[in-house]
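TASK: fixed-backbone design
INPUT:
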């Protein structure tokens, strides 16, 4: 049998050499990566993450039906005809003497001017002249219900003496009556002559107390609100949040808690070492926990309490 030429053997070695080198390189890199990942996992398991206890104050609130009181003047038509509203069909702020409505009757035209500066509404709720403090304040019964506004239409017919809208003079104080739940914090506010409230999630503000009827677990309050925006005139009644006590503490991750010996606690870093501390508080949204006793702002706690329970922690 004939031998293969020497050139073929050299060619075969050239083909297998690079692949063998690449294979060994892949094995070395993969082994190194696996060793590093193993070391890193071991390192992280013994050096876990810490969380800082962040301060938090929660204000307790109670929503309460509140009726609003203001002075107003109903505007009437001087003749039979159809109404034209030159300022549109929504609430609008006007100055004294501004034309708010025109009454067209054949060849006749009557104009209606704002008797004062204020908010003009081409609308009525049927309680004009009837909604008053004297009808809502006495007794501990349910507060009266407010009616819905009926907005006038452009070109609507009106009789002589019929209402075309109303003017709410400005400036004036916006007053309110509400029942509020009583606790020590609320009583403390009332003794100071104010109550803290919020409308539609806005920042808390103080209302000045004009009168109080104390019924023990609740009180009926008559207050002056510190503002009177035009958005408030669309209804004589609304839900208002009244603030009661405050709950202060610090926030930690829910995973930092550990049940132990019938209680709940955390592993806190103190004086160069970890120590288990019993805490009290309440759960919050987003997997958080408000600690009201046992920690102070700035304390470091193990983010995963289970790691501390297994004694797998190296601090240095």
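OUTPUT:
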């Amino acid at each position: 049998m004939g031998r293969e030429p020497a050139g073929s053997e050299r060619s075969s070695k050239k083909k297998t050499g690079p692949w063998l080198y690449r294979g060994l390189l892949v094995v070395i890199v993969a082994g190194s990566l696996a060793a590093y990942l193993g070391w890193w996992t071991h390192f992280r398991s013994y050096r876990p993450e810490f969380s800082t206890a962040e301060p938090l104050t929660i204000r307790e609130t109670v929503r309460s039906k509140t009726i609003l009181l203001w002075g107003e003047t109903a505007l009437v038509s001087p003749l039979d005809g159809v109404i034209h509203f030159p300022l549109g069909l929504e609430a609008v702020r006007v100055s004294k003497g501004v034309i708010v409505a025109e009454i067209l009757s054949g060849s006749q035209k009557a104009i209606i001017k704002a008797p004062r500066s204020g908010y003009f509404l081409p609308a009525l709720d049927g309680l004009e002249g009837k909604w008053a403090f004297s009808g809502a304040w006495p007794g501990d019964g349910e507060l009266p219900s407010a009616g819905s506004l009926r907005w006038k239409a452009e070109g609507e017919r009106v009789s002589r003496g019929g209402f075309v809208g109303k003017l709410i003079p400005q400036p004036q104080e916006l007053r309110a009556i509400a029942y509020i739940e009583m606790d020590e914090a609320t009583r403390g506010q009332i003794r100071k002559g104010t109550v803290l409230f919020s409308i539609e999630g806005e920042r808390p503000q103080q209302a000045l107390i004009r009168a109080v009827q104390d019924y023990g677990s609740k009180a009926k309050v008559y207050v002056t609100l510190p503002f009177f925006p035009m958005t408030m005139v669309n209804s004589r009644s609304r839900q208002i949040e009244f603030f009661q006590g405050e709950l202060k503490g610090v926030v930690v991750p829910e995973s930092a808690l550990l049940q132990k010996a019938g209680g709940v606690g955390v592993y806190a870093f103190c004086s160069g070492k970890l120590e288990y501390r019993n805490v009290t508080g309440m759960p919050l949204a987003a997997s958080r926990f408000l600690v009201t006793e046992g920690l102070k702002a700035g304390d470091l706690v193990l983010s995963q309490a289970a790691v501390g329970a297994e004694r797998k922690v190296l601090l240095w």
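COMMENT: The radius of gyration is 38 Å.
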